[in-house]
Amino acid sequence: MVGTDGQVDGARRGTAAAVPDAAGVPSWPEPTGPEDGARERLLDQLLDVLDLRAEGVDDRGQDVFGGQTLPQPHGRVFGGQVLAQAVVAATRTVGDGRAGAPAPGDPPPPAAGTARPVHSMHGYFLRAGDSRLPITFTVERLRDGRSFTARRVHALQHGRPLLSMIASFQTPADGVDHQVEMPDVPGPEELRSTVDLLGTPEAPPAWQPPPGDELDEAARTWAVRWARSRPVDLRHVPVADLPPGVGQAVWLRTTAPLPDDDALHRAVLAFASDDSLLEPVLVSHGLTWATRGLRMTSLDHALWWHRPARVDEWLLYAQSSPTASGARGLATGRLHRRDGVLAASVAQEGLVRPPRPGAGAGIAT
Questions:
Q1: DSSP secondary structure letter of residue 336
Q2: Facing residues of 163 across strands?
Q3: What is the distance between the alpha carbons of residues 350 and 346, in angstroms, rounded to a whole number?
Q4: Distance CA 336, CA 152 (A)
Q5: Domain edges within the chain
Q6: What is the pLDDT at residue 75?
Q7: Which residue has the higher pLDDT, 292 or 114?
């Protein structure tokens, strides 16, 4: 589990996130079936990556942590991984009894062990990260108030920031309470895992080849290999079953159980929230991940945790894209628990540059 001591529960620890080959490059996990424990190993890899190493305090008074990376076929760090690690790094500095330099009028910092979960984060992706290299996280203690705590986190490689994020933490409190209803869609048991649909006519729209093209075998193999390496099981709701106003709906949960640690579930939710969110932007313009020449990358990410949720239990991710302009597409999402409770809201803007005329079908990277 992830707490102020930064340890991940040993019951869910397993293989390292990446095993370097003779050249020192992390190997890409081969697709394997659940019969040989692959699902558990996938989650163990994620937990290893979230088990950040404390590296002390730098000369600016910032807490420093080190983290590993999940291997990626295109060599770039998955944004959701960096978001989750940044949330872990910030969480490690909350309720530990130490605070940054107080400003005049600031209240005393909360006592050690004070429960103050993360409730929101806003981050900017500044440059692509190298999935062969570790990442350093620095945490600036912006404020420790009576009810709220604020932290700024930078994720660094070669001393340059990959991500700049501010997270806010709040002591649990009573107050106003309302939410939108969960969309009425088929349950996850009625759907096949998205990885099993890739390369078939039943694949989600964003994973279909462009009209008039076919997904070549190399691209299909890449897509299946990528999907089977993910520690989160995605099940897209068929378009015909979507209610009005919902651009896409995806059931998701981790591939194996997680420890009973709310802080860890919030971090893993940040990881999962970056998966599939920009797909409604693509579909709105007749584009897919298989459109060769498509250039697409996340620019920023905002996440609000409204209520506790377990990410190893099914969550419905209802997504839409209200607008796109200036080569940027905005996507929003709502994550509901199985009982209908709204657990989190998400917003992300991504750079979307369509391919040049004449490009064929591949996989956008």
A1: E
A2: 125, 155
A3: 13
A4: 28
A5: 10-170, 192-353
A6: 83
A7: 292
Each residue's pLDDT tens digit, 114-133:
689 999 999 999 999 999 99
What residues act catalytically? 274, 298, 348
pLDDT 10s digits, 223-280: 666 677 789 999 999 999 999 999 999 999 999 999 999 999 999 999 999 999 999 9
Instruction: Let me know if domain 10-170 sits in CATH 3.10.129.10.
Output: yes
Cα dihedral across residues 23, 24, 30, 34: positive or negative: positive
Looking at domain 192-353, its CATH superfamily turns out to be: Hotdog Thioesterase (3.10.129.10)
Three-state DSSP state, 87? helix
Give the H/E segment covering residue 218.
helix 217-228
Q: Model pTM? A: 0.85
- 10-170 against 192-353: fold identical: yes
- Residue 81, classified by CB atoms within 10 Å of its CB into exposed (0-12), middle (13-18) or buried (19+), is buried
Q: Which residues contact 131 (CB under 8 A, 6 or more apart)?
A: 18, 26, 69, 70, 71, 72, 75, 76, 77, 78
Alpha-carbon gap, residue 162 to 83, rounded angstroms: 10
Examine the pLDDT at 105 and tell me if it is beyond 80: no
